[in-house]
Amino acid sequence: MVLLSVSNLKKYFPLQKSFIERVISRRKQYVKAVDGISFIIREGEVFSLVGESGCGKTTTGRLIVRLETPDSGKIVFDGKDITFAKEKELRPLRRKMQIIFQDPYASLNPRMTIGDAIAEPLIIHGIADKREAREKALEMLVNVGLTPPELFYKAYPHQLSGGQRQRVVIARAMILKPKFIVADEPVSMIDVSLRASILKLLMKFKKDFNLTMLFITHDLAVARLISDVVAVMYLGKIVEIAPVDELVENPLHPYTKALLSSVPTIVPQMKREKIILKGDVPNPINPPSGCRLHPRCPLAIERCSKEEPKLKYVGNNHYVACHLL
Ligand code: SF4
Asked: Which atom of ligand 1 is nearest to the CA of 254?
């Protein structure tokens, strides 16, 4: 069953201009962070959004949990159109959808104890009184591996390591038993040696609570470990979507191939075409015409600079946006 469906979602951020720039030109400029993306996430699925920083994946996550309002498009969550829902309508849904941010330190109030931070959502949503919330928070501390729980309950964020803080953030999100989580680069600011244990913890919750997850990462190797389906984003567009094994074993878009070329350890025994992109990611204020990858793509043909490729179905639940297919 489909839990989340996103259609033709767009978000452009207006560019702040200086006084001089406003005098020279009155034309408004926008950063096209998310520019017409569509996908679905089924119940119990981990759907990863992968791409370089600035490709629009974090904005997509924030739009879905409605921390941002889209410019256009449609977001349907659990059968409800939440695209332009007001805060009052969103409040009951916030219990069902939570977000885990990249920076665990910035996600926690430095003046609040760990236990109170975990218990707080239960009190805010009127699910438990103070005593029950404390008990549930202690249970959750054990669940996320922070023991003895009484000790961690009284601690403050600055007394914990990065890995422990991210466990607290996960505990705070999971205490409401949400149906859906957006995990935005949850391991990228954590010591490499601790990343696997945080991913394992997320997978434990996925299994125990039949959790559905949008997992945002720049790292295809991490996406490979955790995902059922992967969507690759480039400059505000989705360029390829496929089940994870299909994507890794049979990448079709030159950008996905380039990302995989830089991750040699994913499937070491496989020999695959190496693609190296030219130059840097172009400015999202003025993205290239036609296919946005064309100035960097070594396989570009004349049509690529003129016509934007649409996502096409190529079999095996695999979609690609490239004129060569
Ligand atoms: Fe490269 Fe053209 Fe395909 Fe874009 S459409 S990825 S420029 S070949």
From this structure: 6
Q: Check: CB of residue 50 under 8 Å from CB of residue 259.
A: yes
Q: Please tell me the distance between residue 219's alpha carbon and the centre of ligand 1 in angstroms.
A: 22
- Predicted pLDDT of residue 266: 47
> What DSSP assignment string belongs to 149-173?
HHHHHH--GGGS-HHHHHHHHHHHH
Specify the CATH number of the domain 2-96+178-320: 3.40.50.300
Cα 278 to chain centroid distance, Å, stands at 26
Give the number of other CB atoms < 10 A from CB of residue 307.
Answer: 12
pLDDT greater at residue 28 or residue 224: 224
The end-to-end CA distance of the chain, in Å, is: 30
Tell me the torsion sign for CA atoms 138, 143, 144, 147: positive
Which tokens belong to 207? 């299994």
The answer to whether the CB of 300 is under 6 A from ligand 1 is yes
Q: Which helix (H) or strand (E) holds 200?
A: helix 192-209
Distance 284 CA to ligand 1 centre (A): 18
Instruction: Look at residues 46, 13, 2 and name the one whose alpha carbon lies nearest to residue 183.
Output: 46
pLDDT digits 0-9 by tens, 55-102: 899 999 999 999 999 999 999 999 999 999 998 899 888 889 999 988
Q: Helix or strand or coil: residue 197?
A: helix
Distance 89 CA to ligand 1 centre (A): 42
Q: Are 104 and 162 in contact (CB under 8 A)?
A: yes
Residue 293 beta carbon below 6 angstroms from any ligand 1 atom: yes
299 close to ligand 1 (CB < 6 Angstrom)? yes
Share of the chain above pLDDT 70, in %: 94
Question: Domain residues of the chain, as ranges?
Answer: 2-96+178-320
The secondary structure of 86-127 as a DSSP string is: -HHHHHHHHTTEEEE-S-TTTTS-TTS-HHHHHHHHHHHTTS
Q: What is the DSSP string of 203-253?
A: HHHHHHHT-EEEEEES-HHHHHHH-SEEEEEETTEEEEEEEHHHHHHS--S
